[in-house]
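Aggregate trends can hide what the representation actually does to any particular protein. The sequence in question and its structure tokens are set out directly beneath this paragraph.
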Amino acid sequence: MRYECDPGAQLFWASSENKEFLTAELEAGKTYVVMVDVIMGVMKAHVGLTPVSVSNSEEFNKAKGLINKEAPTITPDDKIEKMNNKLGKFISKQLDAYETTWKNEKNYKHLSTDMAIPEEYLN
């Protein structure tokens, strides 16, 4: 999935059988890669978020292969808005739990500005 966002502090998260968060500090105009790990759980899949940098060539090459495997699809803004409205209470509840409890209980991974993928690695 490709996602464009504002630079600065960001919080990304995935939800399935578990909730996984990733803090980020992003620079404008830079490209970052995060692998979404899916592992079988008891009732649903268990998810993880792993920041990728070129310093880990094995992980970076795996990610690049997946990224280049298929052309990106674009989700229309109205579909995103509809889903956000449908899940609004759930999203609010989870973000509140993160802010009040989870961020203090677990050391979540962080995507830092120095993990930006240099232009020459993107082709």
